């Protein structure tokens, strides 16, 4: 088995490199060979092109993309420094626009400056950018097309040192492109490139992030965006539903566990002479409980829902005027404070856990006959049909750890 895998690998390696253990350097026909020695091929990923842009080996397309990458990287580095410098070194003295009476100090940092710079300033920036773009020939094959505009401040006469610096420029440009995008987002949302999340007051999540149930480690967790419309009535309806389902799930989980240790004495149905001890635990009980028992449950749930604990829109979800601690009618209530908040958060967390737990119990019960039943009890599994056939060969040669048969 190992040899079959090995010989396939040898065939491929031999076909590509000329030897079953040939070096990758011998695969001279690879389209990636054209670019793997270019600047920007750096550890730890080496030549990285997951989308396959260079799979065709087109040198002209590669040069065009590299030219674009260099320009964007340089602009991103300047933009990143443009965010940082005014915060650290301050702003120029004097006027940006004497005619408008606008000083440099009046221009805010970041995206907010877009609306403050006069149209004359925008025209100057556009003209300067156009001058930089057209002042040198950037046609394919020219030094400018490779990013060399004759500005030699950071270069070196040593070829090795020059290569290292040019590779560093590409790496820093890539980092700066990621950084400036992050700054744009953070500035747009919080008003500053390093603004606190608390400043994002327009977030649709603000309406609910201080609600009960917002707990570590995930905080406010709404991956489907159900709360992005900020509809308080909808949120309260969903929270009420979550609380009810959680409370029912906690009771259901306990209903699975308690009969394993204790059952009521006497009869469940005197007319059918059905004792509590004769009713199986779990899903199997559904077919054993008499129809009158089901009717009693439905009537009791209706009484709890509409009579004992009617909902009031002015109260918090799950808070019923007649319910005390643990739902005891007209019982004592938790005093407001940190302890009350902690316990209500615990109820939500335990209810969420119970909803997951009861679903697992139903599946395991339905398949094995018990909420904690063994797989061996799942006799209706479609795999059972072949179990005896598998047994015939599981002691044969070749049945080895770790996979067995």
User: What is the H/E string?
Assistant: HHEEHHHEEHHH
Rg (C-alpha, Å): 36 Å
Amino- and carboxy-terminal Cα gap: 14 Å
Summarize the main sheet.
2 strands, antiparallel
Summed over residues and divided by their number, the pLDDT gives a mean of 83
Count of helical regions: 8
The proportion of residues forming helix, as a percent range, comes to 40-55%
Q: Record the strand order, biggest sheet.
A: 1-2
| Spans where pLDDT lies below 50 across 5 or more residues | none
Principal-axes geometry comes out as flat
Q: What is the number of strand segments?
A: 4
What percent strand?
Answer: under 5%
* Main structural class: mainly alpha
Compose a concise summary of this entry.
This protein is an all-alpha fold and 405 residues long. Helix content is 43%, strand content 2%.
Structural features, described:
With 405 residues, the chain is mainly alpha-helical. It has 8 helices and 4 strands. It has helices at residues 2-17, 59-88, 119-134, 159-190, 232-257, 291-308, 338-368, 387-391; strands at residues 95-97, 102-103, 267-269, 274-275. The strands form 2 sheets. The protein has a two-stranded antiparallel sheet. The longest helix is centred in the middle third of the chain and has 32 residues, at 159-190. The chain is flat. The model has no long low-confidence stretch (mean pLDDT 83).
